[in-house]
Specification:
The chain has about 400 residues and is α+β, with helices and mostly antiparallel strands. Helices cover about 25% and strands about 25% of the residues.
Amino acid sequence: MTLSPAPRKPLPIEVRGTSRLPLGMPPAQFLRDYWQKRPLLIRNAFPGFTTPVVPEDLAGLACEEGALSRLIQHDEDRERWRVKNGPLKESDFAKTGNANWTLLVQDVDKWDMDVAALLDHFQFLPSWRVDDVMISYAEPGGGVGAHVDQYDVFLLQGLGQRHWAISDDPHAPKEFRSDVELKQLKQFEPTHEWLLDPGDMLYLPPGVPHDGVAFGGPCMTFSVGMRAPSQAELVGDLADYLAEHLSEEQRYADPDLAPVKRAGEIDKAALKRVRAALPLAASLDDATLLDWFGRFITRYRTAQTPLAPAKPLSEAALTKQLAGSASLLRHPWSRMAWAQTGAHAALYANGHAYPASARWASQLCAQRVLPGPFEVSATDSTLLLALINDGHLILRKLRGRQT
């Protein structure tokens, strides 16, 4: 009989640190079990910790021209949040009262050597991954509301107490409120709550909803944040780098070009040539590459963009005109192309994409003037109305007078 292995015990979410093991475990174990995987509260991570800066110093730094600071006040009765960006003035603090406000100052490690020394405790991470030490000072009830960060963060309690609530539910909703300047969550239901004392530290991987509120008195929290560039930032910067270093002589080329079968179509052969000309294209699927190229090539070297008509055309007016003797004129500044993916097609005009039938997309690319009357489906009518109201098509009566 084969015995099944004993089920693995769940990893603890709370441990106790020591001066020798600030993480409560060896760094290799922390990186294996927690880093970018699950949150961890470390009690006594920094035994006997005392803050290297006092609140008055932080407030003074927030008033400096080059410092990045924010003063956030919460009106609990009316559920309103007020955000003031630095540099701040002394008079700003005179209006705050003694509750429900917080001061955030970023990059304090660049201004204070004692704060910078805290980073020595994180040398188990690549130095280029560490971003900054942000310090938040808050009066009772002060915080920034429930939110998520898109990077790893270590939250070290430096002064007073802060109540932290987090949700480690992977399915927790992460939609943001639209009525506040801060990126606060619409919904937040915590699964764990703690009160942190000086020297305690909470580690949060990216995407964990959390909310920290000063409890009982003034508090100060040191936030060690990581650098985590988005894919958009990585691709954008790489594209700029490649563009700077590639030769102008290397261009899209089509020496194997055959006569087109459908006017304006970006066909499979063209897409293959785009891949060959584009260093970043290898990881892109056909639909993504096609959509980008359709937008790009209809915007590329376009001197002008058609202006939308002063008065938009209604759907009823369009239907009446299409059934009559009106013709459609493609605006001379409108550059069009189209592509088909499966049963769907898209018409591209000066960088914009419009759902279209292959028949109408090809016809609009092939003919500058399309004489009426027209019989169109609901989908094609929607396309034509959008193109007219965006300025790409001009509706003309038989005598050429614009309607």
